[in-house]
Amino acid sequence: SRQREELSGEALRTQLDYWKNQLTGGPPVLELPLDRPRSSRQKYRGATQPIRFSADVSRGLAALGRGEGATLFMALTAAFQTLLHRYTGQPDIVIGSPIAGRNRPETEALIGCFVNTLVLRTDLSRDPTFRDLLKRVREVCLGAYAHQDVPFEMLVEELRPERSLSHSPLFQVMFALQNAPREAVELPGLELSWVEESGGAAKFDLTLSLTESGQELSGSLVYNTDLFDAATVRRMAGHFRRLLEAVVLDPARRLSQVQFLSEEEQRQLLRGWNETAREYPRQVF
Predict the structure, then answer these.
(1) In this structure, what are the phi and psi dihedrals at residue 107, rounded to the nearest 5 degrees?
(2) pTM attached to this predicted model
(3) Torsion over CA of 24, 28, 30 and 33, rounded to 10 degrees?
(4) Residue 181 neighbours by CB distance under 10 Å
(5) Helix (H, G, I), strand (E, B), or coil: what is residue 81?
(6) Contacts from 67-75 at CB under 8 Å and sequence distance 24+?
(7) Do residues 179 and 103 make contact, with C-beta atoms less than 8 angstroms apart?
(8) Digit-coded pLDDT (tens) for 46-100
(9) Cβ contacts of residue 208 below 8 Å, gap of 6+?
(10) 3-state secondary structure of 14
(11) What is the phi/psi pair of residue 62, to 5°?
(12) Measured between alpha carbons, how far is residue 162 from residues 149, 169, 234 in Å?
C-alpha cells in the first residue's frame, strides 16, 4: 500500500514523463541477423550456450568502469550493446535488464519478489570510442535507476508501442548480471541448495545472463531456437569474449574498429573479398 501511495499523482507523472522522453521513437525491433524469419507468433522454445571470461578480462573491465565512475554492470552493458550495434548496424540499441526493486530499507529483509524490468536505450551514433560509450551508458543507467518504480507493464500500457505477437514490446534482448553474494541460507528444519535454471524456454530473442563470482564472470546466452541455430550462438559467445578482450586492451578505439572475429572468420572474409575471378567471353568480335 505504501508503494501505491508513493507511486501516484505527481511522483508517478514525473517518472512516466522521464520514460516517455527516453523511449518514445525507439526502434520497434532489434534487427539481429536471424537464421530463420520470425513466425507470426512466438513459441518461446529456447536453448542455452555457456559463456565464460578470464579473470584478466573481468578485472580489466571492472577497472575500466571504475576509471569512468561506472560499475561493472555498466561496462558490460556498453560492451553488449556494442556487439548488438555491430551485428545490426543500428545506432539506437534498446535492451531490457531486471532490477532487484529493493531500493528502500524497509524492503531489504522482506521475502518476496520485488523485481522490475528496466529498459536501457543507448545512442551509439557518431562512432564513439568505447570509453565515450561507457559514459553514455552510465548516464542511461543512472537515469533508469532514478525512475525504476514504474512497473514495466504500466510502461508498456502508457507508451503503447507497436504490438506484435512475433516479438516482445520495447525490447527483444535482455541482459542480467547477478553480483549479489550467494550467502548460505539457514531455515529451521530445512536444507536449501542452489538450483541452476535449465534453458528450455526463451522469453526473449536473446538473454545474456552473467554471474560475478570472486573475480570471474561466467554465465550463458539463452536463445530462441526458432530464430537462431546453436552454431550461430556459439560464434556469438566467442565474438563477445573477443570484444571484451579488445575493449579492455584499447578502450580508446572507435566501435567500428573493434575486432571480434576469430582468425578463421577473418580468413574467410579475406578469401571472399579476393575471389574476384570471373568467366569472360573467349571470342572477341
Answers:
(1) -95, -10
(2) 0.86
(3) -160
(4) 6
(5) helix
(6) 68/131, 68/134, 68/135, 68/138, 69/138, 70/134, 70/135, 70/137, 70/138, 71/141, 72/177, 72/179, 72/212, 73/141, 73/177, 73/179, 74/134, 74/137, 74/138, 74/141, 75/134
(7) no
(8) 999 999 999 999 999 999 999 999 999 999 999 999 999 999 999 999 999 999 8
(9) 51, 80, 173, 174, 175, 176, 219, 220, 221, 240
(10) helix
(11) -65, -40
(12) 23, 7, 31
| Spatial contact of 61 and 169, defined as CB atoms under 8 Å apart | no
For residue range 143-178, what is the model confidence (pLDDT) as tens digits? 999 999 999 999 999 999 988 999 999 999 999 999
pLDDT tens-digit readout, 230-240: 999 999 999 99
Neighbour count for residue 69 (Cβ, 10 Å): 11
The total number of residues written for the chain in this structure: 285
Q: Is 40 helix (H, G, I), strand (E, B) or coil?
A: coil
List, in order, residues 6 or more apart from 247 with CB less than 8 Å away: 61, 64, 79, 82, 130, 253, 258
pLDDT value, residue 285? 42
Distances (CA, A) of 153 to 93, 119, 121: 20, 12, 17
